[in-house]
Request: fold
Amino acid sequence: MAAIDIKNPKKVSTATVVSAGLLGGYITARESGIRPLGGVVLAAAGGWAVRSWLSKTNIATTVGLTALYVGGFGASHPLAKKIGSWPSVLAVTGATAGAAYLLSDSK
Reply:
């Protein structure tokens, strides 16, 4: 038995992981006042999701979902100026998690 038992990537719910990354990254940056710390949360969750997408799907789907995850983070900033921070983060999280579920987790 290994010191750390890491879950099989095919059994990881990536919709949950990307939600944790986007919401957790935002909350971490906001509450700590250290924006790069939020980026660490975002990157860690993204890496975990990519690991699972590579295992569950093909390269094209993995690249697309990764682009959506990173693009959602980027798009949330200008969107926040129009609709507010929380609505923006929730909107991009919902879109990204929905895509992760449809294209990876439901298979």
